[in-house]
Amino acid sequence: xxxxxxxxxxxxxxxxxxxxxxxxxxxxxxxxxxxxxxxxxxxxxxxxxxxxxxxxxxxxxxxxxxxxxxxxxxxxxxxxxxxxxxxxxxxxxxxxxxxxxxxxxxxxxxxxxxxxxxxxxxxxxxxxxxxxxxxxxxxxxxxxxxxxxxxxxxxxxxxxxxxxxxxxxxxxxxxxxxxxxxxxxxxxxxxxxxxxxxxxxxxxxxxxxxxxxxxxxxxxxxxxxxxxxxxxxxxxxxxxxxxxxxxxxxxxxxxxxxxxxxxxxxxxxxxxxxxxxxxxxxxxxxxxxxxxxxxxxxxxxxxxxxxxxxxxxxxxxxxxxxxxxxxxxxxxxxxxxx
Length: 338
Known about the structure:
With 338 residues, the protein is α+β, with helices and mostly antiparallel strands. The strands form 4 sheets. Strands 3, 4, 5, 6, 9, 12, 13 and 14 form an 8-stranded antiparallel sheet that branches. It is 44% helix and 24% strand. Helix 1 (148-174) packs antiparallel against helix 4 (253-282) and helix 4 (253-282) packs antiparallel against helix 5. It has helices spanning 148-174, 188-215, 224-242, 253-282, 289-317, 323-337, and strands spanning 2-7, 10-18, 22-28, 36-43, 49-56, 63-65, 70-78, 81-88, 102-110, 112-113, 116-117, 125-127, 131-132, 143-144, 182-183, 186-187.
């Protein structure tokens, strides 16, 4: 797209994009979709491209207004590419002064149905800052398809599950009956496990609310939000159930142990899947490097578990009474040698 300021609130706008529905440009006072002026180049059922002028009220099709002072319209549709060019003198009506010409610019494309645009199939590109559209400025490097609040959401979730939570689970699985030094009346492994998993839940809660703050509602990027809600419920359930765990000698302790272990296993699988689906939504790079990094982290965790359990199995087979402790001593010896 390109914008050329002609003076007297007039602009020449050109847009083109690979789409069989529509391409559009929006002017906003913030980075959220809603309360924005939009210009749409829409492909109709006859294969002709028309220009529409509207007002976006949020997560629904925009209200289409008369073209008003839109003139010199040129459109085409060739080889799947929609192109349109026009001059507009319509004032931008988004509740701020038009004199400064500072706006966030949205670019979006998607399908259409019966002459009405549908939800965009990809995340719209949004400038990372307000741009002065009255001046010739190159904004090609300032567009981002991922809002900063969503980047925080993904980063916190990644750190929570792949680092903090992962290490916390390792303490419970591999260090139990090994790190038995008493700290505040409990084994050291348990104190480390409880602290790390509590921190994980806190981080997940913070990250969980960020998309709702951004979208101001429910996201339509299925099935990631549904899976995220399931993970959030299970993550909250773990510490709540732990508050009511019976003593180690209680006859019902086995029920708690199984429930706690099965829920933890489900959390590990579901959180990995949710992270992969989340990266699939935001990673538009040709080499999908985010999914590859995530796959590498998951693969490393599985390899670590397989190696440890295999080693413990053979040590147990040889008659070792505490194979976990022996495995960890071997690990320490290897690290010391290297």
